Amino acid sequence: MFVSDFRKEFYEVVQSQRVLLFVASDVDALCACKILQALFQCDHVQYTLVPVSGWQELETAFLEHKEQIKLLIKQDDDLEVPAYDDIFRDEEEDEEHSGSESDNGSEPSEKRTRLEEEIVAQTMKRRQRREWEARRRDILFDYEQYEYHGTSSAMVMFDLAWMMSKDLNDMLWWAIVGLTDQWVQDKITQMKYVTDVGVLQRHVSRHNHRNEDEENALSVDCTRISFEYDLRLALYQHWSLHDSLCNTCYTAARFKLWSVHGQKRLQEFLADVGLPLKQVKQKFQSMDISLKENLREMIEESANKFGMKDMRVQTFSIHFGFKHKFLASDVVFATMSLMESPEKDGSGTDNFIQALDSLSRSNLDKLYHGLELAKKQLRATQQTIASCLCTNLVISQGPFLYCSLMEGTPDIVLFSKPASLSLLSRHLLKSFVFSTKNRRCKLLPLVMAAPLSVEQGTVTVVGIPPETDSSDRKNFFGRAFEKAAEGTNSRTLHNHFDLSVIELKAEDRSKFLDALVSLLS
């Protein structure tokens, strides 16, 4: 069902019902859920929240609650969308109509002229129809062939809250985190990110202006959101600057930190910035204030010399009172790590609840726990990338690059979940592009496999599109995986909402890859 008026056709319809809310296991979905929960609480709407990690869980949850579900379908006849026959009238009707008109003509020359005009008009109609159908085929092919992401779900929900004049600071922050999740995971283009940041920046200015006009002074534990032009370094304000430089994909790939030469370049960079190693290797919060004052400008200036032109990015930060400050990317990494935590004492639902709770300012202890898990995840990611590149595990299969993580690889359990493996794959591809001298390989996509279950003999397979400056972030692997599995009768499970992530029987891996090579060649 396509909804043109989100408020009337969605919210006002469900407002009087008990709502069943299915939420996917990604950060943007969690943020959209938090905004919707706040709206439901505001309007006293009863709801049931069900986390779903894939199509199977969604189907199971639907069947459990199907007796209570009413499908709400609203048909608008006044949308002014013309019917097919209104656009392209039947040719026989046109001919009959033109024939009856031509009989009324008195002169043969007038008949001929009118007939010629009608023939030209019908020819033009047929041509327009063929062009329209060809364009339609192209659009459908593009839609079905590729997987790509639109506007953040959290931003859509915030827009709904804003239309109803119920937008709060917390909701705005969740919308910011949802957008940042898309950017961190390379789901949208840089242009789309900058455009949406501009939209949210206007909302931030409006909220800050509204708070300034309030008569009462702001409390010590107030929430303040700021637009920032900050460093592209993961978790650096909660880590040491050295650890952040070594475990951020952007800097690790460009310095080539898996090599001795890369480590030397990092030392040269720090010397150029003018930062002593003693200061850089201690916690950021403990660094000398005199060094931190102009740190961003100093790092950006040196980064330009070392070929890193995008060292600073547009982002947002939030202050909870005077003590706690987080960048939007910090919250994304923390929430993602909580959701895909490999800790044995937590189930998928427990992890979901922990991640959802960490987005509330009343649960900062959970957010800080998520930051610690995120540090482990980022460190393990860079160590695995270094291992793959130094042992030449990334090989060319012709139309794509292929890398397989073996059972027994250190920290392999951290990459058994789809989002973690996708993040590793994207970072590995970026690093490989900087490490290889083969121009053709730099333009290839990557297929990566990691063990999922030793008992069941399954692996998780992820497809990542090519890493190019002009990349439109469209992923074609979902459809390619389906066709390769069908052609070889490979035992696969296409359960994830992200179609470029599948589960595959390890025994079928060889024939599956052969089919994929022939399909993409």
From TrEMBL:
UniProtKB keywords: Cell cycle, DNA replication, Nucleus
GO terms of molecular function: chromatin binding; DNA replication origin binding; single-stranded DNA binding
Gene Ontology biological-process annotations: DNA replication initiation; double-strand break repair via break-induced replication; mitotic DNA replication preinitiation complex assembly
Pfam families per record: CDC45
Principal subcellular localization: nucleus
Assigned GO CC terms: DNA replication preinitiation complex
Localization terms from the record: Nucleus
Residue ranges of the region described as Disordered: 91-117
Biased composition (Basic and acidic residues): 108-117
Similarity-based family: Belongs to the CDC45 family.
The protein's name in its UniProt record: Cell division cycle 45
Taxonomic source organism: Ailuropoda melanoleuca
